[in-house]
Amino acid sequence: ATTPETPKPSKVIAVVNQKGGVGKTTTAINLAASLALEGLPTLLIDCDPQANTTGGLGFGRDDARPSIYDLLMDHHAADKVIVPTDVDNLSLIPGSKNLIGANIELVAQDRREYRLRDALAPVRANYPFILLDCPPALDLLTLNALVAADGLLVPMQAEYFALEGISELMSTLDRVTQSFNSSLALEGVLLTMYDDRTNLSQQVTENLTSFFTDKLLKTSIPRNVRLAEAPSHGKPVALYDSKSRGAEAYRELALELLARNNMESPEVARRRAAA
Ligand code: ADP
Ligand code: MG
């Protein structure tokens, strides 16, 4: 039996695509939950004023509860806004409707692009993975996420216009790398709501493979109704229907991400040691 490898210090991953409805929130919730269920303490941060990640984990959206807004505005330190969730090892910094105004309020603040990065510094080391769910815009909130992040995870639908907007996203990545955060890199591109039976999906996948090469993740997420239903039950799909194709796919994604970062799942290691 081998002992599990100690998780490496934290990796912050921003789930970004300025298009709405491509599966960012679904990916943020279910990838974070899958990493947590593999035994890795994970922090999920809801950076979108729509607060769908917060709602999808069963939390109310316009509570007076401290949120990411208070963190960005320096009203509270990170440890005061982090809440535990029903998923073992998964913590959340909730979003809130206040964030709608944050884009404007942040403009007048010192180090406006670094607010999230600065605020997370004291808690980063507590989590092997921190995931940021971003709004469908390349605004100051998303910029804060990109400046705080090490990696960019881009969910995309395999549709004819999939690459539309991607050049804008890639030039934003370049700009952030040059001006604010030289350690930011593309972690991977993830196909979501995938249906491999259609010719179009296969054709788009070929195009994306030649465009992104090894950055196109091997795991793709199938269209699965359980993924769409789970948020209304306030649960990630792994707790709502752990045997569903959606749950299997996000677990596979978590394992691929770990492998790409030379990390082992503590849960896999534990099972192997017990066998
Ligand atoms: P975004 O955060 O990019 O706007 P969402 O994750 O909210 O996108 O997804 C948009 C909609 O599509 C939601 O209703 C969600 O439940 C649904 N959805 C996302 N991924 C899948 C999937 N793989 N299968 C079925 N429905 C999905
Ligand atoms: Mg979303």
UniProtKB/TrEMBL annotation:
**CDD domains for this protein:** ParAB_family (cd02042)
SUPFAM superfamilies linked: P-loop containing nucleoside triphosphate hydrolases (SSF52540)
Naturally occurring in which organism (per UniProt): Edaphobacter aggregans
Superkingdom of this protein's organism: Bacteria
Per UniProt, residues of the AAA domain are 10-185
> What is the official name of this protein in its record?
Chromosome partitioning protein
